[in-house]
Design brief:
By secondary structure, this protein is mostly beta strands. It has four helices and 31 strands.
């Protein structure tokens, strides 16, 4: 299917010199938008001029040792002066600090290209003491990241590690890096490493400075396609307050035990397509958020989203809403997705102070296997706990979660420990229907704090 989209893009651009040009208009995405349970419109594609530059021509060296931050900056600046175009990254290992994209620019990674973020955290430290993500675009129009290459965040140099989640061999590998053991040897932090400087006075402060790998903020007309995004210090791909976004044919991956290793986190963005992606990560797979508390209201909802044809392997949840969505989430279609080996399948989580309201969420044809916990779970007292920290329930009655107007139809799950779980009140969970589902569970068919929270129609809960 991705080949059809690429072919359509080529026809529309008429650009012979660059085989990965991106077209204006939304017609190349329309193939995903037939027979939907809600009326959604395909996002507009970014407009990228035919200009092309090669990173090697701006001092880039693909030896895995030379730092290419300045080469990326010069190449992007040259394209910006031309009105935009394609920055081609050829095969090789391109060690770099932050990459900042501008208007009408496509970052194109050829097959064999590995863009590797530097393990030196000082490269990402801003003058204000905050840390910038690996690749960013802010308040930009027409931005794309395409190709068959890899973007690697070098996350092992950032993330804390729980002893209980690694083997003896892995634990020894971390100790050889140096670092700091804490909590009676139950945690390891990349603080005090043998060959690299710290960016905070303590391991706990440095742990809180972990950043995302690709973050696109307040952008319009965004495309991410074909590339592999892996091993982030924190979340991998984060469109935040963006309009007209397409994420198609992308692979997102990291170790199963990577702390906060979310795959695709969509935040307060509208008119979005996430299709034909493969996700295998340490935290939530494909997650919708909309901010928490009062600050989220001004940024509005996450709305008009189509999530289809994706495969999620390991993740805390295959498709997730929450935990923060005070801005609201509406008009979402999730169809024809497969989850194999996730902790939970469909996961709806929030807590007082983080909650909002959902509306018109339609989930059709989800196929699952080897689900460690629940096939479907609603939780309204979720506690977010950072590594090495202790959490507690929020003591507030503001911004309460309200999961409602959600329809789940045509679900098949083989091997979940718990079939369906919903923990909350009639005010926090209501007007939820599950139809035409078959769930093979191994321990508990349903765990509901009240039997009236979910409307089950044509649902088979089967065990041994």
């Amino acid at each position: 299917m991705w080949n059809k989209i690429l072919f359509a893009a080529l026809l529309l651009t008429g650009c012979a010199s660059v085989s990965h040009s991106v077209a204006s208009g939304s017609s190349e995405y329309n193939i995903y938008y037939s027979n939907l349970p809600l009326e959604l419109k395909a996002p507009d594609a970014p407009i990228i001029p035919a200009n092309t530059v090669n990173l090697s021509d701006y001092g880039g060296v693909a030896d895995g040792i030379t730092l290419n931050t300045e080469a990326f900056r010069k190449a992007i600046s040259a394209l910006e002066k031309l009105g935009g175009g394609h920055l081609v990254v050829p095969p090789g290992v391109w060690l770099t600090g932050p990459i900042v994209l501008k208007d009408h620019i496509d970052l194109h990674l050829e097959k064999g290209a590995l863009v590797l973020m530097s393990p030196d955290k000082t490269q990402f430290l801003r003058q204000d003491g905050k840390v910038t993500p690996g690749i960013t675009a802010s308040k930009r129009t027409d931005v794309s990241i395409t190709g068959d290459g890899i973007i690697d965040g070098n996350g092992e140099w950032w993330r804390g590690v729980k002893r209980s989640k690694v083997s003896d061999v892995e634990w020894k590998d971390y100790q050889r890096m140096g670092g700091t053991q804490a909590e009676d040897g139950t945690l390891w932090y990349p603080f005090g490493l043998r060959h690299l400087p710290d960016i905070a006075p303590s391991y706990k402060e440095q742990e809180r400075m972990r950043t995302h790998l690709v973050r696109l903020t307040d952008c319009t007309r965004v495309l991410v396609s074909g590339v592999t995004i892996q091993n982030s210090p924190k979340f991998h791909l984060v469109p935040q307050r963006c309009r007209h976004v397409a994420i198609v044919g992308v692979t997102v991956r990291c170790p199963w035990n990577a702390q906060n290793g979310d795959g695709i986190d969509l935040m307060q963005s509208t008119d979005v397509l996430i299709a034909d992606c493969t996700v295998d990560v340490g935290d939530d797979g494909i997650c919708l958020k909309a901010g928490g508390g009062q600050d989220a209201l001004k940024d509005g909802p996450t709305a008009r989203v189509l999530i289809c044809g994706n495969t999620v392997f390991h993740a805390h949840g295959g498709f997730v809403i929450g935990s923060e969505f005070s801005g609201g989430i509406s008009d979402v279609v999730v169809k024809d997705n497969t989850f194999s080996g996730t902790d939970t399948g469909l996961r709806f989580k929030s807590a007082p102070g983080r909650g909002g309201k959902t509306s018109r969420i339609r989930i059709n044809n989800v196929y699952m296997s080897d689900i460690r916990d629940q096939a479907i779970v609603f939780e309204t007292e979720y506690v977010n706990v950072s590594v090495g920290e202790s959490g507690s329930k929020a003591q507030t009655q503001e911004f309460m979660p309200e999961f409602c107007d959600i329809s789940i139809d045509g679900l098949v799950c083989r091997d979940a420990r718990i079939g369906v779980s919903a923990q909350g009140t009639a005010e926090s969970i209501h007007d939820i229907s599950v139809k035409n589902a078959t769930i093979f569970y191994t321990e508990t068919a349903a765990s509901l704090s009240s039997p009236d929270l979910l409307n089950l129609e044509g649902v088979k809960l089967v065990s041994w």
